[in-house]
Amino acid sequence: MLKNDLIQRSPAVIIMGRENLHQGRFGAVLSRAGVGKTQFLVQIAISRLLEGQNTLHISLTDPMDKINVRYKEAFTSLVESIGYVDPLKANRLWEDIEPCKTGISYNELTFTAKKLRDYLKTLRKGDIKIPSMVIVDDLDFDTDLTDFMDDLKKISEDFETSFWFSMRSHREEPLSAEGYPKQLERLKDRFDKALFLQPRNEQIEAVVLKDGDRVKQRYALDPSTLMPLPE
To answer: What is the model's pTM?
Structure first.
């Protein structure tokens, strides 16, 4: 079945594990600018869509038409990774899962936990399926987000949804003793999952920073698609 084949080929599933990927409340994908945080988050979301779940993608920098292009490109890369697939069959599958994705563009001044809570309450009141995962892309983790993250944790509990964040690190900043960029270090107790993407020669190295006892595992990824490379 095409759906299951695509799930098994997902870089997010290969690295984090199919069941394991969707456990916990907070996850993060970290890298410096331009390495692939959003691209990887999109692959996580597509794996959830293929499982029949709804997702919400909140972008604080990009318009939603740009994010939508990222989703279509990521889906296409996933299809191409398993070899020849009937284009009509692939297109029908995309048309089936794409409506389960909702996108909202904010900026850092207009995005608040209250707005998100009110949006989810509106869905619940309208008997509309609550997203099982919310992506928050480009939140500034160089600022103090302690109270904000506490508010999102309460939303996660109240609406039974998980959150994944992009987290920008900086080239010149040293890592902690555990290998964490400082943006994660200050909030590490709140996160169940964390993946660090780093350029290595002509590849991207994905390092599992937080995921139960599966820490320090490393994977080489194709920089253009983020698909895992053969060992």
So the answer is: 0.93
